[in-house]
Amino acid sequence: MSVTLAQFRRTLGEPDLRPVYLLAGSEHLLVIEAADALRARAKALGYVEREVYDADAKFDWDELARAGSALSLFASRKLIDLRLPTGKPGKDGAAAITAYCQAPPPDTVLLITAQEWSKQHEGAWVAALERGGVFVPVWPLKREELPGWIGARFASRNLQASPEALDLLAERVEGNLLAAAQEIDKLALLATDGRVDVGLLEDAVADDARYDAFRLTDAALGGDVARALRIVEGLREEGEDAIPLLGWILNQLRLLQRLSAAGDNLGPAFRNERVWDSRQPLYRRALKSARREHWEACLAQAARIDAIAKGRRDGEVWRELERLVAAIASPRRAAALIAS
Fold first, then answer.
1. Closest C-alpha among 290, 218, 216, 305 to residue 259
2. pTM score of the predicted model
3. For the segment 215-234, what is each residue's pLDDT rounded down to a tens digit?
4. Exposed (0-12), middle (13-18) or buried (19+): which is 181, by Cβ within 10 Å?
5. What is the phi/psi pair of residue 110, to 5°?
6. CA distance readout (Å), 120 to 88, 106, 126, 154, 213
7. For strand 20-24 and strand 134-137, is the pairing parallel, antiparallel, or unpaired?
8. HSE-up (13 A, CA, CB side) for residue 10
9. Which end of the chain is more exposed for a tag (fewer CB within 10 A), N or C?
10. Rounded CA separation 55/254 (Å)
């Protein structure tokens, strides 16, 4: 059967587990935590032995059948933990999973996790799994669902957050559940009275390098060259690693490249990219200031910086990063700033 994440968690309270589970979705934190919950429940029910398999392109799918037929050496019950990162087992894998599901071995639970998923991934092997097992598709949260998820996460840490704090954190993390979870864990240590308001939230993230990266790209996309360069210099002086910062800039440049392909029809593009309403004016301003070719040139410069950072090209990482940030903020000067 196919169930929601909430329904799946309720099934874990049943007297025993189903023979097969498939947890699949691109919201990695949700998939990981759901799998952890299943493993914990399996251990509590006596599935003490655990065998882990990574089903990459070179995986021998006969291993699955052997794992199912092998007697447990340490316990009467066993958990087979099969990681299928792409969600695509291929012809041999689909056949192996289907065969396993048609005659699952006793006292054994097969857990399959996939961190890429869409409707196109579903096939006959998923249908075979659903007939005797549980399929849990984990879809990305919608923008309007994120504050509720954050609120529930606060509650699980015995914290009460004001509505304004919920909205602010949702805006800051922009759909990144892992970032939200990390911030909530940090706030759990800082909120001595169990309450989180906007002031505490802002103070907590003031020195966070991730949010410095957010402020940097906001300044650059807003055309504020001086402020953007001050943030770069501050991060450099604090000894921050340039690679994570470059990663966030790359994320934003790729988003701008995709948005620029939409032309004047930005409304649907913003929805497809899950861009928050409050941030749309910033992207509109940047897109109005430059054509798609500019963002592609900036992406090429980012690739050069990455090569420098990894020792494959000569140059000074922070200097080239400053040039890239200035080019993003001032497209008219880009040709001089990022010429190859």
1. 290
2. 0.61
3. 788 889 999 998 888 888 88
4. middle
5. -100, 120
6. 10, 31, 11, 35, 35
7. parallel
8. 5
9. C
10. 30
Cβ-in-10-Å burial (0-12, 13-18, 19+) of 33 comes to middle
Residue 11 near residue 102 (C-beta atoms within 8 A): no
Q: Six-digit token pair at 206?
A: 């003031």
Instruction: Decide: helix, strand or coil at residue 291.
Output: coil
Q: How far is CA 161 from CA 175, 190, 257, in A?
A: 18, 13, 36
All structural domains of the chain: 5-137 (3.40.50.300), 143-205 (1.10.8.60), 209-337 (1.20.272.10)
- Taking only the tens place, the pLDDT of each residue in 252-262 is 999 999 999 88
How far apart, in whole angstroms, are the C-alpha atoms of residue 127 and residue 153?
33
Q: Sign of the CA dihedral 330, 332, 337, 340?
A: positive
Beta bridge partners of 272: none
